[in-house]
Amino acid sequence: MFGPCEPDAALAWAAEHRAIRRAALIRRSPWGITLRLDAQPGPCFLKCLPPAQAAAAATTAAISALLGDAVSRVLAVDAERGLLLSADHGGHAIAPDAPVEERQAVLQAYARLQAVAVAGLDRLSAVPRWSLSELLARVDRFLGGRFDDPQADTVARLADFLGPRRAGLIGDALAAARTPLRARLEACDALPLTLEHGDLHLSNVAVLADGQRVFHDWDNALIGPVGLSLSSLIGPATALTDGLHDRDESSFLAACYAECLASEGVAPLASIRAGLPAAVLAGLLVRLTAYAQYPPHDDASREVCVPDLVAISDAILAWCARLALPHPLASSAIIHLLAAHQREDLLLDLARERGAEALLGAAGGTLAGDAGDAGDVGNGAGETLMARRPATALAVARWAQAEAAARAPGTVPALSVDGAARQDDSLLTIAADVGSGMLAEHGCLALQKALPARLLAACLAHHGAQPPGSQEGLPVGDQRVMHPLPLAGPFNTPALYAQPLVLRLMSSLLGPDFLIGSITLVVSRPGASAQHLHADHPPLYPHAAGGAWLPPHAVTLLVPLVATDDEVGGTELFKGSHRGGGDPHGLQGGQTHPLPLGSGLLFDYRLLHRGLANRSGRDRPVLSIVYQRSWFRDAVNFSRFPPLQMGFEELKRVPAPLSGLFRLVHLTHD
């Protein structure tokens, strides 16, 4: 690993300052080697910085001299070789998942430390100074590919860590959002300058026995606007694009920090609140460019850096998208970019936060635009953008819109999945994320355009060709019979029982080892009256108060073989009733959703529902497929015939990767 002075030489230097009895390696990474020394007169830490950061040793010493007990006490420094010896503060580490109250306390202690630094900036001449123009130049260099650099062997590029495609996306997004981004960053000029840590996360803070917080590892320190280091502690904080508010944890923490700075007399609260979002954004760019100092000369170096760079890059993308959204040209380019690079996750977050209508408007504007404009974004992404087009953004926005609409009374949650989405793995992943959330919350979900209509027509014809009386049935209401359905012909088709989105939804809700518990056909004859209100299975824990809040143990997929409407009837659902423990009292009324041929209806096995009357002159056959957890067995509904039947030759037709779905199959004579 290319990096700092090796431990033996560093230990020899440290022995000149302390009597060392033993040394233990704490960390070896691209940004230094740290050893804990059992020494006299007390334990201490030895840090060996990489050549590019050797000057940080002197910087840390200056900070220690100014701030005293608020930081680790520096015992000795070799600025030329980047060696730093500091006393063991004796505090305990803070857990990475510490509650918000601990983060709040850290920020308040940090704000008080910064207030002291404001008055002593003249004593911190060794600490690098903030410059927005210099930062943007460093960002440009780090993104790479824009000009030759004579230090190419000693300065890393983002592409060295994340590859050219992902690095190109970041560069293109920053270029597309250049105008609103620069305007936001310039708000940093109104903030007071102070000492900034540069890498302020909980593992760089310790708590002493008396509750005092001690800040260490000041290798990336700089003099800059207050708030520049917040992002590594409060997260990407993309909600701050709208300013400080109380809608999420990040904004709450930022507001607490601003109030503490104001109470310490650093600046008026209003001016800090106004400029703080800009400082958080600038801090993300500072953290991004810090990795230019650590060229990944081996896989170990790259693996250490990549997770943090991925998180920082995603946060920058999210900021760019949110800042660009009010600007038609910028938003069009950003949405094209995210779609082209299959970042539907960020598009979905954007649609949820800003409203699907905002994303629909921005994406819709690209439909009428000149496709050649997309190629002007930079880094030659035009060809990729042309391939994806804005359909991805439109699909994601509509799903977010459906997610919000599902909460309206009287509405059945519904998700439309067209042919393009069924063939796009990244879109299916997002659809499954949205759909599983809707199904878990409401207990039901209509899937529109999910199944091939031609296949369902073939299934209807196959069913109609069976000799009368060839299948025994179980009455499940007036003129309504549930028939066993040995899988054969068009029914034995993966497109029917293994629809890709359905499988993803079931894996999310039931666990990856789910299986098919039953496949039946329920036929409602002409004149059939409405069913009684029921769930398909009694509660597993009827006397347990918390049983209703358990995750589902089975989910039914209903697939009508004819289009359903008011005349032929459908299924009435009582959304949310899966959380009621099977008690119908207090329900406000059911919901129905017409299902054109090719659509299906998923619902939790605990959901209250009923088949509606068939007022038409023809049968209403509905295929029912029950997916269930591997341990669940339905001992209530299938005393007359096996719930899952298939002939041996038909079983051989099941693709090997899907054979696990039929672990409970009952083999019949072909």
Short overview:
This protein is an alpha+beta fold. The protein contains 22 helices and 22 strands.
What's the average pLDDT? 87
Quickly name the level 1 CATH class of the largest domain: Mainly Beta
Annotated CATH topology of the largest domain: Jelly Rolls
Biggest sheet strand order reads: 11-12-18-16-20-15-14-13
**How does the major sheet shape up?**
8 strands, mixed
**Class by SSE composition:** alpha+beta
CATH architecture of the largest domain: Sandwich
Name of the CATH superfamily of the largest domain: q2cbj1_9rhob like domain
Rg, Å, rounded = 31 Å
Count of helical regions: 22
Name the poorly predicted regions: 146-151, 365-388
Roughly how much helix do the residues carry, as a percent range?
Answer: 25-40%
User: DSSP strand (E) fraction?
Assistant: 15-25%
**Measured distance between first and last alpha carbons:** 65 Å
Q: How many strands in all? A: 22
The total tally of domains equals: 4
Shape: elongated
Structure notes:
The longest helix is centred in the middle third of the chain and has 26 residues, at 299-324. Helix content is 38%, strand content 16%. Helix 6 (164-176) runs antiparallel to helix 12, helix 14 (356-368) runs antiparallel to helix 16 and helix 16 packs parallel to helix 18 (425-442). It is elongated. It is an alpha+beta fold and 670 residues long. The chain has four domains: 1-88, 2-Layer Sandwich (Phosphorylase Kinase, domain 1); 93-324, Aminoglycoside 3'-phosphotransferase, Chain: A, domain 2 (Alpha-Beta Complex); 326-405, no CATH class; 414-668, q2cbj1_9rhob like domain (Jelly Rolls).
